[in-house]
Amino acid sequence: MRAKPPIYPELTSVGTPPVKVAVVSRMIAAKGIADAVEAARRARSLGAPVELHLYGAPDPSNRDAISEELLRRWSSEPGIVWHGRTEDVARVWREHHVALLLSYYREGLPRTLLEAAAAGRPIITTDAPGCRELVRHRREGLLVPPHDIEAAASALAELAGDPALRQRLGMAASARVKEAFTEEAVMRAVGGLYGALLSS
Predict the structure, then answer these.
(1) CATH number assigned to the domain comprising residue 109
(2) Is position 13 within any domain?
(3) Which of 24, 123, 127, 152 would staple 141 via disulfide (CB 3.0–4.6 Å)?
């Protein structure tokens, strides 16, 4: 039997810490990496105490790849850090407050969002197929239109300024994974579908 996913509590610190936002993804354009960087810049310009942390490796074989040179240039800016590839995703969510994925292409449900939700992290993501299958607006996170930098920056600023909202959305995200996206839940759903087909 698969172990239950952990729930990580809201991070705490003395004073007013920066709110740490993580993107865990392939470093390709369609995952909205550049949009995430621009949204973080905009949120910081509005006074939001956010730090953006990028986790993922560039893929030179993919023509949509973000170059290592550009990633390093972004990482030289205040409040933006590129860490490269990580094998310890659980640690990422222990150390970060918010998950961000501004993907703008049709994809299945991103695993990175499931991992963040299972860890009890609120999510900012695009109102796009796949992403919105998990995240419902203001229930498990905040949905923003693809390529809408202002909306993404506003979402970052809102979560940065509202720890109670972060906590509520994160708890709801974890509950949603347990309710609908565990192996057992998927098996029940598939079994019910086959049962309905056989009885029709």
Answers:
(1) 3.40.50.2000
(2) no
(3) 123
What is the residue type of 40? A
**How does pLDDT run across 146-159, given as a tens digit for each residue?**
999 999 999 999 99
Provide the whole-model pTM. 0.87
Q: Is residue 3 part of a domain?
A: no
Determine the structural domain holding residue 54 and report its residue range: 19-199
pLDDT tens digit string along 99-134? 999 999 877 899 999 999 999 999 999 999 999 999
Residue 148 lies in a domain: yes
In the 3-class helix/strand/coil scheme, how is 97-160 assigned residue by residue? CEEEECCCCCCCCCHHHHHHHHCCCCEEEECCCCHHHHCCECCCEEEECCCCHHHHHHHHHHHH
Q: Who contacts 111 (Cβ-Cβ below 8 Å, separation ≥6)?
A: none
